[in-house]
Amino acid sequence: MTNVTRSRPLSPHLQIYKPIPTMVMSIVHRITGGALYFGTILVAWWLIAAASGAAYYDWVSWLFGTWIGKLVLFGYTWALVHHMLGGIRHFVWDLGYGYEKHFATKMAKATIIGSVSLTLLIWVIGYLVRY
């Protein structure tokens, strides 16, 4: 059997589809899930340093306090919050709600806005409590 419409691909892929908010949030949800594995290693490293003694803990705390360390921790915080909100979005779907196109798009947009806002709020509160 030949492809009658030669201009159309037999199997559409990401290069063919126009990115829409729900598709992008699905991809980002998967990426943040993978990133959380590596971020959890950082949490375990910090806990091990705390149990290993003051000198090692001070060194790890210094490392996390550098601008690169803070950037990594900020990214981990965002990934954690974003993945949590994406999980809540999926839970709503599991309950049988939110399948309407306009509502699903609003939830996808709310996920990104909420994750950025909550991450900033967490870091602002963290700095206010610290000093």
Largest beta-sheet characterization = none
What is the gyration radius calculated from CA atoms? 21 Å
- Give the total of domains: 1
Fourth CATH level, the homologous superfamily: Fumarate reductase/succinate dehydrogenase, transmembrane subunit
Distance, first to last CA: 72 Å
Total helical elements:
4
**Helix-strand string:** HHHH
**Helical coverage, percent range:** over 70%
Q: Which residue ranges are poorly predicted, with pLDDT under 50 across at least 5 consecutive positions?
A: none
Task: Please name the defining characteristics of this protein.
Succinate dehydrogenase cytochrome b556 subunit; single chain; elongated; 131 residues; SQR/QFR_C/D; 3 helical TM bundles of succinate and fumarate reductases
What does this structure look like?
Helix content is 78%, strand content 0%. With 131 residues, it is mainly α. It has a single domain (21-130), classed as Fumarate reductase/succinate dehydrogenase, transmembrane subunit (3 helical TM bundles of succinate and fumarate reductases). Helix 1 (21-52) packs across helix 3 and helix 3 (67-94) runs antiparallel to helix 4. The termini are far apart. The mean pLDDT is 90. Pfam families: Sdh_cyt (PF01127).
